[in-house]
Amino acid sequence: MNIIIVGGGKLGSALVDFLIKEGHDIALIDTNYNTVESLVGKYDILGICGNGANVETLRDAGIGKAQILIAATPSDEVNILCCLEGKKLGAHHTIARVRAPEYSKQLVFMRKELGISMVVNPELETAAEIFRMIRSSRTLKIDSFAKGRADIVEIKIADDSPFAGLQLLDINNKFKFKVLVCAVQRNNEIFIPDGRFRIEAGDKISVTASPSELDSMFKLLGYTKQRVRSVLIVGGGTIAIYLAQQLIENNIRVKILEMSEKRCEELSEKLPKATIINGNGSDESLLSEEGVEKYDACVALTGIDEENIVISLYAKAKKIPTIISKVNNSSLLRMINSLTLENTISPKQITSNHIARYVRSKQNDHGASVQTLYKLVENQVEAVEFIVSDNEKCIGIPLRNLKLKSGILIACIVRGGKTLIPGGDDTIEINDNVIVVSNGLYLRTLSEILA
Questions:
Q1: Which residue, 57, 70, 190, 316, shows the most beta carbons closer than 10 Å to its own?
Q2: What is the CATH number of the domain that holds 370?
Q3: What's the whole-number mean pLDDT along residues 436-450?
Q4: Residue 68, domain extent
């Protein structure tokens, strides 16, 4: 598809990287010449230095032939204007990044009345994900499918784990729950395993099952779910506001450490039920003075990735049960594995996942449609949820008889509200929600799993 991206910042560059790998023709517009030159030098794309809200600039980028326009500049208003102009000039679909809290209640209006196909709010989505992690308080990462009827969680295998040394086919036979290990990271290698694969201590595994089956697994592994009563947030940006609002609504005590005195005054007005402290959240003496070790969770949300990592390491040394770090730098995310920081979150990754799911759904005019898409294991593995229509070639055929491409695993089937961990005799049927895990493939339709 022909896709125009306006804005070459963190999100824009992440989308270029993602979408170019899927074979799309990309035109990038940015006001910064160096940004355009850098991305054009790295990728096979059309680069235009100019204002994306300028009609002539959009025409130069080929707006009349564009299937999708994605506006991801730092300005909400420019993004909205880009989408309105793009739609008028012929773009089939438009996506706007809108971040300001005051616009968060107008998203439905933007879609229905202004005709913007999709509005994404990275800060709001990130806050919702962090809140979900705090509530679960026991996994590295958890992603939900089929309206919460199936989850994929990432856990690290400890030396004394009952899973260590087991072949995957032995797990469901030995224990009283049914789960499926759908991906394994061992050092720098990624595996989509079969039943003969043997788990080792130190592996990071992605497991799929219904929430109730996963609860049984958590009990076996000793992951006790503790009630979170207090959360310390370091950094008072927009994500902190969204997160604090959700926490306070659930009767969780919130304290925010923020360096800017002016920002502290704004936070006090917007969050009267939170405790706001003006100070440097990476200052050990301040953290100690504020009793960091007494909190059930610590969330590092400063604008500097390295600072968030240091804060989280300090919180880990103080044995805070749940620690979450905001990290956008991909190279730092890879390094964090060696630092034993288990819970990290990337706003640009969350947002790019949402947009990528939408883009794929618009490539598929028939067949199973993409409902949910998540990146697993440092973005190297995908989990895609499809709803099956009546023209799929795989319907009614036992899974053992399906010839699947290499690197494909059918991880879960949800049928009639029930979650099924599939075996060789199971089949895919019309209206099923099917979760497919793949390594190195970009699936747009369910049919693409077949060799």
A1: 70
A2: 3.30.70.1450
A3: 85
A4: 2-120
